[in-house]
Amino acid sequence: MTVARKQLAQWRRASPIAAALAVAALISAIPLYADSKKLTSDQRIELLRGLSAEYATIKALLPRSKKALEFNSDGTWDQVKWKAAEKELGLAGRVGDLIQVTRVEIEKDRIVLELGGGTKAKYKWYEHLEVGIGNSTTPVGRGDGNAPGGTTVALMFGEPIGELNSADVKKLLLPILDFDKQSVTANYVEALPEPIREAIHAKKAVEGMNRDQVLLALGRPLHKSRETKEGAEYEDWIYGEPPGRVTFVTFGGNKVVKVKETYAGLGGAVARTPDP
């Protein structure tokens, strides 16, 4: 006999009323214990904000599936079922591809992530994928025509979720999705045309780059200036200060149209960066 049963038997012998009150107290405590693992409103909001619209690098083949692909919180998944889904509907993404979380649903024992618009997407997710660096975004899709849409993944806990934040969820999903910003940026750079990719690695700006790519190559400029010539607006990003090398990166719209370097205060000549 457990301690609780012994205590209840003693109360019953002492007083039927006391026994009835004790039973009522035990019953009322049960839902409190069961609810102790429920997410609070603040936790739900943090999960939604921390996961919605996030980008990740795919680390395992992601098939499309009519039902959410189940991924267990212990890092395992039914690879046979995933392979069968791939044979039926094809892939939503390959290893190394970028994919975006387009919807988050939080249920009692699972968190469901719609990726790349889900299986109902009528477009290729990578054609609409953009990465933001600074105040603007740029498409990074490879346009290889192999991914007809997204998919849905359900992170399964097998019990009420309990206390959890978005960083915890990203760690649990690491075997299949890498949300690390550096990994996403590295994957973005590798998907770029070779001349631009080489310029970023060399920390240089070249014509044809957009603002995000210049930020990756050179960082934020010290100064900016704008002017209008023949009805067209141009913006200069200025790197460096005299005496020494000063680089002028001129944008027409979102593209670099000219890169000029001077050696202010040192008597140097102006060197034009070769076309990519």
Task: Give a structural overview.
The protein is an alpha+beta fold. It folds into 3 domains: 3-36; 41-189, no CATH class; 194-272, 2-Layer Sandwich (Beta-lactamase Inhibitory Protein, Chain:B, domain 1). It contains 8 helices and 15 strands. Strands 3-9-6-5-1-10 form a 6-stranded mixed beta sheet. The protein is elongated and about 100 Å long. 24% of the residues are buried.
Biggest sheet statistics: 6 strands, mixed
Order of helices and strands: HHHEEEHEEEEEEHEHHHEEEEE
Read across the widest sheet, the strand sequence of neighbours is 3-9-6-5-1-10
What is the count of structural domains? 3
The residue fraction in helices comes out at 25-40%
Q: Structural class given helices, strands, pairing?
A: alpha+beta
Mean pLDDT: 79
Globally, the shape reads elongated
Task: Extract low-pLDDT stretches.
Answer: 27-36, 123-130, 132-147, 267-271
- Report Rg: 28 Å
**N-to-C terminal Cα separation, in Å?**
83 Å
